[in-house]
Design a protein that fits this description.
This protein has 171 residues and is α/β, with parallel strands linked by helices. Helix content is 16%, strand content 27%. It has a five-stranded mixed β-sheet with strand order 1-2-3-4-5. It has a five-stranded antiparallel β-sheet with strand order 6-7-8-9-10, with no helix packed on it. β7 and β8 form a beta hairpin. The chain is globular and about 40 Å long.
Amino acid sequence: VLHPDSTWPGWQEDLNEDSMVLLLEYRGFRALFAGDAGLPAEAWLRGRVGRVDLLKVGHHGSRSASGAPWLAELAPKVAVMSLGTGNRYGHPHREVLERLHAAGVSLWRTDQDGSVRVVVDSAGFVVEGKGRVERWRRSEGDAVIPGAGGTEGESVIPRAGGTEGESVIPS
């Protein structure tokens, strides 16, 4: 549990900011679950988390979460956004989608991809949703989509700015 802790100065100012933020580490895989925490909690945690493989986007894609400095620090390969279709809050906010796109993150949305499943194995991790699968190799930043063509039924899709087969994530 990264947040909140006893030093958090914003207790009860905004209950969303008091939301639990969890870091999961397993076999070299790192996932951050941001709950409903937004920009103030992100600023408070800045410099204490480092890179993650997967980010569960804070506050359902509200514009008050997933700021550019936070995304730059975390540098997630994949982000999962939990939200309902046609929700009354208008989530996800366009600004958050733009920030995630600018960060080169592979976005998974429960309103479009249904339930999202992440499986960690010795080679990396696999993200699965409705009609969509991505494999992320531990030593590379490329998404491999099984059954989409290429060699042995795999197609390599580079992250933003890369070319086929090139890792654009520093080791």
